[in-house]
From TrEMBL:
Domain RNA polymerase sigma-70 region intervals: 32-93
Record protein name field: Sigma-70 family RNA polymerase sigma factor
An annotated Gene Ontology molecular function: sigma factor activity
Species of origin: Maribacter algarum
InterPro entries per record: RNA_pol_sigma-70-like, RNA_pol_sigma-70_dom, RNA_pol_sigma70_r2, RNA_pol_sigma70_r4_t2, RNA_pol_sigma_r2, RNA_pol_sigma_r3/r4-like, WH-like_DNA-bd_sf
Family note: Belongs to the sigma-70 factor family. ECF subfamily.
Pfam families attached to this UniProt entry: Sigma70_r2, Sigma70_r4_2
GO terms of biological process kind: DNA-templated transcription initiation
Amino acid sequence: MDKIENTIQETIAKAKAGSQIAFSNLLDTFWNDVYGFQLKRTENENDAEDITVQTFSKAFDKLSTYNSAYEFKTWLITISKNIHIDLVRKRKRSVLDSWGGNEAVKKVLDDAPTAEDRLITEQNLATLLQHIKQLKPHYQEVINLRFFNELSYAAIATELNEPINNVKVKLLRAKKLLAEVINKKA
C-alpha cells in the first residue's frame, strides 16, 4: 500500500470510530470523483448532486461494511451506480404507471387536495417542525435553508459563509439526526 492509501485507510478507521472530521475529509477527498461520475451518467447537475449526497449518506451509514481489500473510491462509485439504477427504475415505473389508461385520467381529475388532505398535510408539517426544533440551531438553519427556502448548496454556503462541502456534511448530519428524532417518537 502506498502512503496515500494508508492515509485514506487511517481516515476511514477514524470515521468508523465516529470522527466527524474524518467523515468531512472523506467527503472532501471523494466528492468530485463521485459527482463527476454521476454528472457523466445523468447529464443533469441536480440529479448528479442528489445522487452524490445520497451516496455519501448511504456510505457513511454502512461504513462498517466497507472491506479495505477494495479501493474506497471504487466502493463509493458502486454505491453511487446502484442508487442511480434505482432512480432510473423508479422513474420508469412512475412513467409506466402514469400511462395506465383510465387510471391516468382519474389521477389528473383527482389531483386537487380535499379539505381532509390539507388538514393532514398541515398536521404533518406541524409535527415535522416540532421535530426540527429539537435539533441544534445550526442544524435547524441548514434544514430550513435547504428544504423550506429551497436554496441550492452553493446558496446555503454563501448564506452561512462556509465552504460548500461543510454545508453538504452538515445537511447530511442534520437529516440523520432528524430521522433519529422522528424514529424515537414513532
